[in-house]
Structure formats: C-alpha cells, structure tokens
Amino acid sequence: MISGRSARVFALALFLTLPPALCPAPLGAEPYSPYAGVLIDLPPGYQERRTQGAAQRSFANGQGAVFEMELSGEGGDPAARLERARAGLGIPAGEPGGIESYDSHGLRAALARIEFVLDGAGRPLARGGGAGGARAYQGWALCVDRGEDQLLALAYGPAGNTGLELLSLSCLDSIAPTGAERYYWGPVTEFAWPRGETAETRLYNTALSARIAGGDAEAAQGLVDREFQVLRLFEGGPRWQEAWRRFYRMIRRDSWERLADALFQLERSWNAEAVLGGTRSVPGPDAAGGSAGGIAAGLDDYALAARALSYVQGFRYERDLIGSDVVNLGSAITEGRGDCDSRAMLWALFLAQANIPAGIMVSREYGHAMGIADLEGPGARLPLGDRQYLVAETTAAVGLGLIGRNVSEAAKWLGVMFE
C-alpha cells in the first residue's frame, strides 16, 4: 500500500507551522445501512440494482460481481438456511466445500462456498447444464441468526476470476449484522481466526500489560493482507480514493476491539503520570454544585494527543517491499514497529477511543501518511466536511501541527476519519 517515507531523521528546520488550513479534502463514504440495523461497507463500484420489498437488497459492479442480502422473518439454524439457499442455486446437498457452522460475536452463524450455473435469463441450472448463454459463478454465502430473524448474504461473481473472489470475501466480511458489530472484526475474519482467550501482553516500551488474544496479530494481519489485495484491484482506476478510504476503514473496524484494553491502559497510565507530576488540575464541584477546586485531572485532549504522538514516534521504522506496508496494529503496539500508515492509524485509533475525533491523511504522490485530529491549537490543518483537523507527523520527533515543507502541497493529501 502506501510505502511510507524513507527512514530518516527530519531536521526541525524543515518543519513549519502552516497557515490555519491546508486545503479542502472530501470525506469518504461511510458504511451503507441497508435495513434493520445491518451495516455493510462494500468495495467501490457496487451499485444497488434491485430491491424486493423491505428485507432484500441486491448490488452489482461492472465486472459481474454480485452481493445480495435478505432478512427472514424469524430466527433459526443458519446452516439449514444456507442449505436451502444452496439448493435454490442447484447445488446438491452435502457437496464438498459445504457449510461450516460457528459462533460470530455471540451470534450463531454459518459460512459456505457456492459454485453454480445460471442460464441466460439468470435461472439456476443443474450442474453440468449447458444451455445457451449459461455461465458459471462462484463465491461465498453467509447466514447469521440475529434471534428475531436471520440475515442471509451471498457474494459471488463469474468463475475463474481471482479478483472477484477476493471482493466476495471482502463484501461478506464488511457486514455488521447489528450496530454493536461495527466495532468488531467481520464475520469472515471471525470464522477464519476465532479470537479465543485473551492474556496479559506487555505493551511496547512500557511496564504496562493489556488483555490481547494470542491470535489477534495473525488475524489482523490476515485482514490487512486480504484488503491490500482488494485495494490493488483499483490501482490506476477512477475509484482509487474510495478504495483507499475503505482499506483504512476495514482495518479500523478490525482493530477497534482488539486494542481497546491496550489503548485504555496507556491512556490511564499517562493521565496518572500527569496527576502525580502535578502537570494538570481542574476545579471540582462542591456539594452545592459550586467550584471547590483541588481535584486533580489527567491530561487535556491536546496533551493526551501529544503524548500518544511521542509514543508512536518511538517505534522502529519497518516496511514490506513486497506486500502491504501496513503492520497490523496489534503487532505495532506490542512490538513497537511499523511505517507511517501503522503509526498514524494507531495514533488516530487511540484518540478515537478517547472520544477525540481523529483519523489519518494519506498521499499517493508523497507515499506518506499522517494523523489528523479535531483539536484546538496552532499548526497545519486539513479541512474535512465542516471541520479542520490538526496534523500529526508520526515518523519524526516533532510536535503536533508540524509538517515537512517537502510534503506540504495540500492537494496531494486525502483525509480518512475514524469514529
């Protein structure tokens, strides 16, 4: 993906405080909410093509890839629902590569491979059918039991196209069956890498430990590597900016809960240091609701962002010259490594978890990424929507709001906000 800047030390003389804003940059599309609290974040190019009542949606892209969702009226066994769906496509029951049941964030789920043939009118044919205009398709089907109903989703495309196969898996993994799941990794990742038990794990360059599952790093890197391949499908095309934004959104979603305790431990520790060091105190209310004074508080938002920035600036610079440069954020925070993308994302995720609106800004031309946050204070800013976000350089030991002169052409930056 974004290669990041070469590992070097920036001289402070190269940095400046820019005017209040760089230039306008558009916000990326947010995940689509089709119905009944279900969220999806499809790759660029999928357009809604057919709606059948309030509980069915169908999307397709220009390469023949299809994504369909349906809500049934009642719950039940997800595997049985997938068996019926496969039968409707002419797939014999019990065919190899069939249905696998599992638990997805407390919900019963099932995943299945699908390979089928449609005639020229879109009707399923028996396996081996050769009517005129017939075409073979392959992909995946997912069913999640939400208790009061079932969510069925099919993602497929013309057989033999590896790119469409990746899109199909990415589509299904983007589903959040309920609002709560938007803060957890997707159902395909949960199937491939069940999280298991968490254990206390040391955080880089600290005496702190946090609850992190042993398989989190492998799962998160698997998500990064797959989504990097999806991203490459859009290189050089007109929708590359949408693809970049979605790439980072998918990583943010996958990382949110995995790192929640680690980020909380860091925040609590830094706030405690500030209180013990006497660097911050605010008035407190007395019994009558007035100001009593003398109650110590932690770092304010700006100071917290600066402390987090200093932390990620101390990571070891690391790149992958073959695949994605993005080191999964779990490895970044426990091993202290990563290039600009990983550091900027981790910094932004830390702020977002601390209820500070934050995100990243990326540049294809500069091969670089930085953090952005909704903070008061001097420095370079990137406008997104109706807000202007302060810039944070994560690969050089400089303060908030400072940006190198050689990467300061505003039109070459793209903003991506996290929640």
Structural account:
The chain is an alpha+beta fold. It has two domains: 12-28 and 197-417, no CATH class; 33-175, 3-Layer(aba) Sandwich (Protein Transport Mog1p, Chain A). Helices cover 27% and strands 26% of the residues. The protein is built from nine helices and 21 strands. It has helices at residues 78-88, 162-173, 187-192, 216-232, 240-256, 260-276, 301-313, 329-335, 340-353, and strands spanning 15-17, 32-35, 38-40, 47-51, 56-60, 66-71, 99-104, 107-118, 124-125, 135-145, 150-158, 198-202, 209-213, 281-282, 295-296, 358-363, 368-373, 381-384, 387-392, 402-404, 414-417. Strands 4, 5, 6, 7, 8, 9, 10 and 11 form an eight-stranded antiparallel sheet that branches. The chain has a five-stranded antiparallel sheet with strand order 18-19-17-16-21. Strand 10 and strand 11 form a beta hairpin. The chain is globular and about 75 Å long. Mean pLDDT is 86; it is low at 1-28 and 281-296.
Question: How are the elements arranged and paired?
Answer:
Blueprint: E1 15-17, E2 32-35, E3 38-40, E4 47-51, E5 56-60, E6 66-71, H1 78-88, E7 99-104, E8 107-118, E9 124-125, E10 135-145, E11 150-158, H2 162-173, H3 187-192, E12 198-202, E13 209-213, H4 216-232, H5 240-256, H6 260-276, E14 281-282, E15 295-296, H7 301-313, H8 329-335, H9 340-353, E16 358-363, E17 368-373, E18 381-384, E19 387-392, E20 402-404, E21 414-417
Antiparallel strand pairs: 1-20, 2-3, 4-5, 5-6, 6-11, 7-8, 8-9, 8-10, 10-11, 12-13, 14-15, 16-17, 16-21, 17-19, 18-19
Helix pairs in contact: 2-4, 4-5, 7-9
